[in-house]
Specification:
Low-confidence stretches: 1-6
Shape: elongated
Number of helices: 16
Strand order of the largest sheet: 1-2-7-4
Helix content: 40-55%
Strand content: 5-15%
CATH class of one domain: Alpha Beta
Largest sheet: 4 strands, antiparallel
Order of helices and strands: HEHHHEHEHEHEEEHEEHHEHHHHHH
Number of strands: 10
CATH architecture of one domain: 3-Layer(aba) Sandwich
Distance between the termini: 71 Å
Mean pLDDT: 94
CATH topology of one domain: NADH Oxidase
Structural class: alpha+beta
Length: about 375
């Protein structure tokens, strides 16, 4: 049941909001805003996306639709969503460096959010501290729950509604002063905290620009704000458990875990804010490693070197699958063919990984003939 709050005055909740704002900054978040949880305006868009089958094999997106659109059903008694923003782009990662890496087909490109420690663990711990402080301030039993991409929560919709930015044509939340390289997190609460209203500067400012749509390597956007996940490289290299469609493999290039193109070329990311979080700094030289080096990792090396990293979630077989696609797209190199042949002799390979390695060998042979 919702805890009674009438013992507190409106001024108390204004001060509490100010305190949460300061606590969130102290905890390493760059922004905190509060909204109600009426998401009626997003209902038709989400349903149309599902009806078009744009979610692909992500069947969980079809479950609990009512809870996604009505947070009070997800967490009983919810009145407000406290949204938080945490920037993640390391200072060493500029647009020029990212573009340059994409132009080196022998190097592996990994989405910038995944270079360091898994954000789920870091942010969850910070939110837990914040929730405890709120509890202590109110001095009564609260009905609140923290989320870090861990439940059916439409976090971009809630953040947009709170005024943290706008959902751009690339379906990313864009902040006029911070770009889009940031994580979102939420605390759903039954406290009647004052809500924020979107400011004009955080309303939609995409205008006629559609660079994100034009640069998408696999043409995953069917139109502005319409992403067909079945063609999205992030989906293909992370969410998809099976075989990557043949016609899309050459388009993936050297992107082996996620894709940042629709952010790299977004004009608003010239205002992106770099992070001071050491845990988000690149690990294991993942920001500048060759495909062959990463492909050479054994399963035990993969598990050891991706410990605490979001990359580990795809498992070793999909890691090999993705790298095989990258090797197939690389310039002809006899070392690539020899390495692929040698790896095929291993007994620990699944058919899916084998099939992609065989494809990569054929692509290398084609390149040799055309050289």
């Amino acid at each position: 049941m919702t805890a009674p709050t009438n013992k507190h005055s409106p001024d108390f909740f204004i001060q509490l909001k100010n305190n949460i704002q300061q606590w969130s900054l102290d905890a390493g978040f760059q922004q905190m805003l509060i909204t109600d949880v009426n998401l009626q305006d997003y209902q038709q868009y989400y349903q149309d996306w599902l009806d078009n089958q744009y979610h692909g094999d992500m069947s969980y997106m079809q479950r609990n639709v009512d809870k996604r659109l009505q947070p009070a059903l997800l967490h009983e008694g919810t009145l407000r969503c406290i949204s938080f923003r945490m920037d993640y782009l390391p200072d060493s990662q500029s647009r020029i460096l990212m573009e340059d890496l994409l132009q080196q087909p022998d190097k592996a490109y990994i989405s910038r959010y995944a270079l360091g420690r898994d954000y789920h663990k870091l942010i969850r711990k910070r939110l837990s501290v914040l929730a405890n402080k709120i509890q202590q301030q109110v001095e009564q039993t609260l009905n609140q729950r923290a989320f870090v991409d861990s439940a059916p929560v439409l976090e971009r919709a809630l953040a947009e509604k709170a005024g943290m930015g706008w959902i751009g044509k690339n379906t990313m939340l864009i902040n006029k002063k911070a770009g889009s390289y940031f994580f979102l997190a939420e605390i759903l609460t039954d406290l009647p905290l004052p809500i924020d209203k979107p400011e004009e500067e955080q309303m939609n400012h995409c205008g006629s620009c559609q660079k994100c749509l034009d640069v998408c390597p696999t043409k995953a956007f069917t139109g502005p704000n319409q992403l067909d996940a079945r063609r999205c490289i992030s989906y293909l290299t992370i969410e998809l458990h099976g075989s990557i469609p043949l016609e899309l493999r050459p388009l993936i290039g050297n992107r082996i875990y996620g894709c940042d193109d629709c952010q790299i070329f977004c004009p608003w990311n010239k205002f992106n804010q770099t992070t001071a979080e050491v845990d988000f700094s690149p690990r294991q030289q993942l920001d500048d490693s060759s495909l062959l080096t990463l492909f050479g990792w054994s399963e035990s090396e993969f598990l050891d070197r991706t410990a605490g990293s979001p990359i580990r979630r795809i498992g070793y077989q999909r890691w090999l699958r993705n790298l095989a696609v990258g090797l197939g797209n690389a310039h002809y190199d006899v070392d690539i063919i020899n390495t692929l042949h040698a790896r095929l002799q291993a007994e620990d390979l699944e058919p899916m990984a084998i099939e992609h390695m065989q494809w990569a060998i054929e692509q290398q042979k084609i390149k040799k003939c055309g050289a």
